[in-house]
Design a protein that fits this description.
This protein is an alpha+beta fold and 649 residues long. Among the domains are: 235-405, Jelly Rolls, CATH 2.60.120.260; 554-646. 23% of the residues lie in helices and 30% in strands. The chain contains 13 helices and 34 strands. The strands form 7 sheets. Strands 1, 3, 4, 6, 7, 8, 9, 10, 22, 23 and 24 form an 11-stranded mixed sheet that branches. Strands 11-21-12-17-14-15 form a 6-stranded antiparallel sheet. Strands 13, 16, 18, 19 and 20 form a 5-stranded antiparallel sheet that branches.
Length: 649
């Protein structure tokens, strides 16, 4: 009986051994090729993935096949002939080794990429009328894939977690992007072509994080940060030192070139409460509602023997606990680390020779943009020496950085506000995936530096079209109204960023903007009316596809005519109207020194703005505030969006 068992088992073992190489190889197809996927119709279909170097891979979809050979790095790609809308199909990848991967229920239709920050990320279940919207979802022709959060300093070839495609049913819709879903739902009302949505966004992210180094270089002024990022891959301590010098230079610039700085112990320090914690709770009036930078300082004393051991390469580290939300940390005046994220415990390795005998100064710059700033949590704060000795970090002192200094620059490896981190982690894995279009809902994080946004958005849109048709439609959601009601002309960063969005879209030629300054929530940066956002995105998509629809009034020109400035508009549905008044509210005229509200009326597709006495206007602007007050719409109900134009004489 024993020999019989052996004869029976041996073939099984042999089969298992023979199957091992193929099993260990991993999926042949890129993670987006999964059950229930939608792939792009009416143009050659790129299919790609990874196999053994040099191995042939044959792809079959329906009755069409193609073969590719994996390169030295294992990557392969082939293009299938174009398919018309339809399905479902099976997609099969078969390697020469015998490894096979089959993907079922694949539809061919249109695929949109939805990306941005928290307002794109906000799910249906957190928006208006969510209970009814989720329960009523029932569209198998609308499929959705979510890309997990992932940041990386180098481009990834596949996803941190393979996206799963799901039909628009109650069990899937609730957690999906509301703006993206409502856009697609609106498009499906008039076009039953299968529709796929790939959602890749991350709350709090800056546009720079979504762009490749090449695109950032084209936008300009990012070479230094990219150099530090590249250095961090080869020599992290050197990159940390370099970044520390960047923070020092930023601080000096905001202090009129002052020498020294808090990292050297300069300035007026006061004792911080024991245990630290969020500074809003310290009972210090100046910190009760403070958003900005607070510097923290303490010191530890080492013996000559301890310092000598560390100088010879002893693996010391600095533990400072959690910081809300961004820290840059210095030891003896030298940068040793910078991290973003309130929930991250900071542990920084110390390069050999960083410590010295006697007192060692430790300084932490803590920047917080919204509530609960500071060093907090139960994680211990200590200097840990190579022999395991832990020296507690106690007796902290602090000083408040003037609010006027603004936000410090973020380290180029910062997950959300760094350079290329989300491009590398979330967009690069999509490879040459074919898309119908892009919907982009982002800008709040960049509002503090609006002067760079037009160039960034221009290059971002251009990069998203790489490998896609040159006229691939791009839809951009403009910033909503948010903040205190406008009572007087103001110099608004949000208005400046909206203008950067408007101009970039206007110059693009294949983009449309969704103006939402009438449907935001002045008290909530995350307005919950995403249904109308989706409708306006869909309207822009239809216009770019050639439909006879307008996309909301857009300024064309402004010229001085007698005692008035006439502003002409295009894309006006029938005519402009001032709601609730004979006067068009929201117009300002400006000279080089001042802007003043101006009386205006609308006539057809133009506005006539009266020039105030004593003003020689060089610019006209409209709805120019964080939360502007205005009343001009066209007869389709779309608002006149914010703008600024030069006045010609």
């Amino acid at each position: 009986m024993g020999s019989i068992r052996m004869r029976r088992v041996a073939p099984i073992l042999l089969a298992a051994v023979m199957a091992t190489p193929a099993a260990a190889q991993g999926p042949l197809l890129n993670g987006l090729f999964a059950d229930h996927a939608v792939v792009q119709r009416d143009r050659p279909l790129p299919v790609f993935g990874r196999a053994k170097p040099g191995e042939a891979v044959t792809i079959t979809l329906g009755d069409k096949s193609a073969t590719a050979t994996a390169g030295p790095d294992g990557a392969w790609r082939t293009d299938l002939p174009a398919f018309a809308a339809g399905g479902p199909y099976k997609l099969q990848a078969k390697a020469a080794s015998g490894a096979t991967q089959t993907v079922s229920d694949v539809l061919v239709g249109d695929v949109w990429l939805c990306s941005g920050q928290s307002n794109m990320e906000l799910p249906v279940e957190r928006g208006n009328n969510s209970w009814s919207e989720v329960r009523s979802a029932n569209d198998d022709g609308l499929r959705m894939a979510y890309v997990d959060h992932a940041d990386s300093r180098t481009p990834r070839t596949d996803f941190s977690k393979p996206p799963a495609w799901k039909s628009a049913k109650p069990e899937a819709v609730g957690s999906f992007s509301a703006a993206c879903y409502y856009m697609a739902r609106e498009l499906r009302k008039t076009d039953k072509t299968p529709l796929g949505l790939v959602h890749a966004s991350w709350g709090g992210s800056a546009i720079e994080a979504w762009m490749s180094p090449a695109a950032l270089r084209k936008a300009g002024n990012y070479e230094d940060g990219l150099t530090v990022l590249a250095l961090s891959l080869k020599d992290r301590p050197a990159a940390d030192r370099r970044w520390g010098e960047t923070i020092k230079a930023w601080w000096s610039l905001r202090h009129n070139g002052a020498a020294g700085g808090p990292w050297l112990g300069d300035g007026a320090w006061t004792p911080a409460p024991k245990g630290l914690g969020a500074w809003e709770g310290w009972g210090v009036p100046a910190l009760a509602a403070f958003d900005g930078i607070v510097w923290f300082e303490t010191s530890v004393t080492l013996t000559a023997a301890q310092a000598q051991a560390q100088a010879k390469g002893g693996a010391a580290s600095l533990e400072i606990g959690m910081v809300d939300e961004v820290d840059t940390t210095f030891v003896n005046g030298v940068g040793i680390g910078s991290t973003s994220g309130a929930g991250t415990v900071r542990v920084y390795p110390l390069a050999a020779g960083r410590l010295k005998a006697g007192a060692n100064r430790i300084v932490v710059s803590a920047f917080d943009s919204y509530a609960n700033g500071g060093m907090y949590g139960d994680a211990p704060r200590a200097l840990v020496l190579a022999d395991g000795t832990r020296i507690p970090l106690d007796d902290w002192r602090c000083q408040i950085e003037p609010k006027a200094s603004g936000e410090p620059p973020r380290a180029p490896w910062d997950a959300l506000s760094g350079l290329s981190t989300l491009y590398n982690g979330m967009l690069a894995p999509m490879g040459p995936w074919a898309f119908k279009g892009l919907a982009w809902y982002q800008g709040e994080t960049n509002a503090g530096r609006p002067q760079t946004y037009q160039a960034l958005l221009t290059q971002f849109l251009a990069e998203r079209r790489t490998g896609q048709p040159a006229d691939m439609p791009a839809l951009v959601v403009q910033l909503a109204n948010y903040g205190k009601p406008q009572l007087a002309p103001e110099d608004s960063w949000w208005a400046q960023l909206r203008e950067a969005q408007r101009v970039a879209v206007a110059k693009d030629g294949h983009a449309a903007i969704a103006v939402i300054t009438d449907i935001g929530d002045p008290s909530d940066v995350h307005p919950t009316n995403k249904q109308d956002v989706g409708k306006r995105l869909a309207r822009g998509a239809r216009r770019l596809a050639g439909a006879a629809v307008t996309n909301g009034p857009s300024p064309v020109s402004a010229r001085r005519v007698g005692d008035a400035v006439e502003v002409k508009f295009e894309q006006v549905a029938e005519r402009l109207a001032a709601r609730g008044s004979d006067h068009a509210i929201g117009f300002e005229l400006c000279d080089a020194a001042v802007c003043r509200f101006a009386d205006a009326r609308v006539e057809g597709d133009k506005a006539v703005v009266a020039v105030p006495s004593g003003l020689t206007p060089t610019r006209v602007r409209f709805a120019w505030a964080d939360a502007p007050t205005f009343n001009v719409f066209d007869l389709s109900g779309l608002p006149l969006g914010p703008f600024e134009l030069a006045v010609t004489q």
